[in-house]
Amino acid sequence: MLASIGGLMSGKRSAVAGRTASCGQRKPTLGAGWQMRKIDRMTTYIADPPKPLPEPGPDALRLSPAGPAYVLDPSRPVLVHSRALAAGSVITRHAHPRAQLLQAVQGLLRIETGGAIWLVPPGFGVWIPGGAVHEVTIETAARTANVYVDPSVTVRPGQTCEVVPVSPLLRLLIQRMLDETHPDRLNRLGAVACDEISAAEPAPLNLPVGQDARLRRVTTSLARNPGDPRPLPALAAEAATSPRTLERLFRAETGLGFRDWRSRARLLQAVAHLERGETSTRIAYGLGYRSVSAFVAAFRQQFGCAPQAYLDRPNGTDPNTDAGKGAQADLAEAVGFEPTVEFPPR
Fold first, then answer.
1. What is the 3-state secondary structure (H, E, C) of 127-148?
2. How far is it, in rounded angstroms, from Cα 289 to Cα 293?
């Protein structure tokens, strides 16, 4: 459900340039799609959503990004939006001026930027800075909830995407905001939601792919097939470089050595298989582990729990649990929250 935009008045149109950012790539410039209009006596800039890219295949469903991401209005610093998405659909490569928290309420999402791949399972969200060019692939049937934050509000510093856990309180705040119509209450809830987003610690659910053409040839291939058993020398030969150079490129451009990078690629793929209901045994041997115990140990080292425990983690929204009761109490307090700082900013 989308918070009402309404109250548009016609005005003079003027092309403006917007500053964009990219997660690990050059900053693009926004084109002439930006328009200046008057909204309730406030000047706002609205960019028409980009047109879908050419169809990648006969079975792909390509979707356009949501409209609230393109509305600039400091009087409404936080907008929310939710929708259901079919497995295999793609939200086309795009950028928007508002920062975004894309939450996977159900299903598994894959976000690709110029320099990394981000996996978002249920219970997590990916923070996307305003202007960051990205594409979203729906790995399994999903329902998403989006929080769009006006550029006048700084939530997380920096211009890099991050996967973060969605706390029980934040989850309830987003649910309440989707149903809220009163502007003042919506702004108060938005202020608390932004505070929760800013405090979230990043989760290790990203896979940097690098920029060097030789490195990207290897990382792209392994990201698509993490179970590929070929050693570093064979992969280096395919990329027309030496093993030493390829190892150096891995460390310089991804921050990980080749073995650690491949391990992370396999474990991220394991999360996707777990969300699809596959067993640990099938996942372990399918991704090239020598035994199920080796897979479980690697998974525990990366995520801090066993694969089944990862799937069974509580979401904190059940009011009969301690976490759910605490989140409900925090939400009740947030509805009556009186901010000590000016929000929205003027």
1. EECCCCCEEEEECCCEEEEEEE
2. 9
Token digits of residue 335: 């509805």
| E runs forming strands in the chain | 8-9, 34-39, 42-47, 61-63, 78-85, 89-94, 99-106, 109-112, 116-120, 124-128, 134-138, 142-149, 162-165, 206-208
Alpha carbon distances (Å) from 197 to 147, 178, 194, 290: 10, 17, 5, 39
Residues 189 and 87: their CA atoms lie apart, in Å, by 31
Chain segment 188-225, per-residue pLDDT in tens = 999 999 999 999 999 888 889 888 999 999 998 898 88
Cα–Cα distance measured from residue 38 to residue 2, given in angstroms and rounded to the nearest whole number:
20
CA 253/CA 184 separation, integer angstroms: 45
DSSP 53-96: PPPSSTT-EEEPPPGGGGB--TTS-EEEEEEEE-TTEEEEEE--
Which pTM was predicted? 0.67
Residue showing tokens 């939530």: 155
**Angle at alpha carbon of residue 217, lines to 213 and 219, rounded to 5°:** 110
